[in-house]
Amino acid sequence: MTKSLNLTKNKPENLMNMAYEVLKNAICSNKIKPGSLLSETQIACELGMSRTPVREALKMLAIEGYVEIRTGIGAYVQSISYKEAVDIYEVRGAIEILAAKTAIYNITEKDVEILKKRFNSLLAKNKNNEQIGVDEFVEIDLRLHELLVERCDNQFAQAIMEKIIDRVK
């Protein structure tokens, strides 16, 4: 009997986490644009769950600054201001210097070759006057920054950078 209660008790938390991850990924990948209204009912329907876990996920996203909840109106994807973008990149630059100091010893030749190949493909496109999509460039650039964080030996720098990289996305 107790196990059954625990499973029921954990289910909404798991659904909330699922809704949170789906929404955060959609926001970070720009599938849901800044300024978009997020309908609890529509999201719940699409995810096959009730509105409660969606509402809780939206509250978590609001705490993290991805969503703004306007009482009586609904939740909107938060736009980022120019000042916020400058601040994020300033902090990112400072922490990446710290991360790079230890990451340099942990980055493998294979890591370097993969990045080199990706950047060279962009150079080749540029040389051939082919259009390079913003998404294509950003994906490769983010991978470089993520690699620095992954190979860094400072767990606090990693935790901070993971949040910053999400905001950069």
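the 2nd protein, sequnce then structure:
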Amino acid sequence: MGIQRNATSLNWSYFLALESDLERLSRFVDLSANEDTFSLEIARLFLACSSEVEVTLKQLCAIYQPENQPNRINEYFEIISANTEDFINFEVTIPKFGVTLTPWSDWTADLSPLWWRAHNKVKHERHEHFEKANLKHCLNAIAALYVTTLYLSSARNVQDDELPIPTLLSVSDHHFIGSYMGRFGAHNAYQFS
């Protein structure tokens, strides 16, 4: 009576857990509006998503350029932009609320995204910048995590990394190829160019 274990994607599981928290939050705060709303729960989710973005970016950079060991968001930019197509302009949707996000669109070699700068303020100076832990920044952080995790799964080239599929977040039509039913349930297929 043995137990066989296969490797699973902790990154994907963690993303899904955070997405579930966002879905629960949406019962109390309408995601289609209320961008400036901030709270302890939004701050908790915002900080968790932002932290996981950094973890995932480091893993992605290690695949693309294992000889480098970046430690800052703008050091990641050089590697990500040199090794991906359309990462910066990748759109994430929340169809249930009619929301479209492009969380990396303002990321440059010299400037981190607005939501990341807000994350640093909340993380290090929460007593002065708690209002930056708002819904707008939180939504962009989880969308950024979704994009980064999708690219990580693609770079790992693992068939079933993205199971189960997200219940709230999706990608724009440009990046969506289709869905199919596999042995372990529904799969989404994505394109990254």
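The beta strands are 92-94, 99-101, 170-171, 176-182, 185-190. The mean pLDDT is 87.
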